[in-house]
Automatic annotation (TrEMBL):
Annotated 4'-phosphopantetheinyl transferase domain residues: 4-97
Gene: acpS
Record EC number: 2.7.8.7
Annotated compartments: Cytoplasm
GO terms (BP aspect): fatty acid biosynthetic process
Keyword Magnesium included in the entry's annotation: yes
Keyword vocabulary terms for this entry: Cytoplasm, Fatty acid biosynthesis, Fatty acid metabolism, Lipid biosynthesis, Lipid metabolism, Magnesium, Metal-binding, Transferase
HAMAP family reported in the protein's UniProt record: AcpS
High-level lineage: Bacteria, Bacillati, Bacillota, Bacilli, Lactobacillales
Protein name per the record: Holo-[acyl-carrier-protein] synthase
Described purpose of this protein according to its UniProt entry: Transfers the 4'-phosphopantetheine moiety from coenzyme A to a Ser of acyl-carrier-protein.
């Protein structure tokens, strides 16, 4: 049974500005494991990665029904499976969590589906 669906979009230029000006933001949003992936990327891919993970975590909070605030970014972790696709590896949800991320030249969009 579907418990919730969430979607979020993030502008890449906004994330680029944040990466350059607010160094603490990245560590606030990304878990230690996500940061390890992030640090191995070029700047362009870092922007896409952070925007995508931020969108995922916002989408999760919408599907969860609380928004960010009742849960925090560190409670949700999105890594990669063996094929490179995003997979939620940590969250407060006890059932299945499905995630998809897409990027354009200007936007990252993520959708989360929670299933009991």
């Amino acid at each position: 049974m579907i418990k919730g669906i969430g979607i979020d979009a993030v502008e890449l230029d906004r994330i680029e500005k944040i990466i350059r000006e607010k160094k603490s933001f990245t560590a606030r949003v990304l878990t230690t494991n996500e940061l390890m992936l992030f640090n191995d990327l070029t700047l362009h891919r870092q922007i896409e990665f952070l925007a995508g993970r931020y969108a995922c975590k916002e989408a999760f909070s919408k599907a969860w029904g609380t928004g960010i605030g009742k849960i925090n970014f560190q409670q949700i972790e999105i890594l990669k499976n063996e094929f490179g696709a995003p997979i939620v590896t940590k969250s407060p949800h006890q059932g299945n969590v499905f995630v998809t991320i897409t990027h354009t030249d200007t936007v990252a969009i993520a959708q989360i589906l929670l299933e009991d």
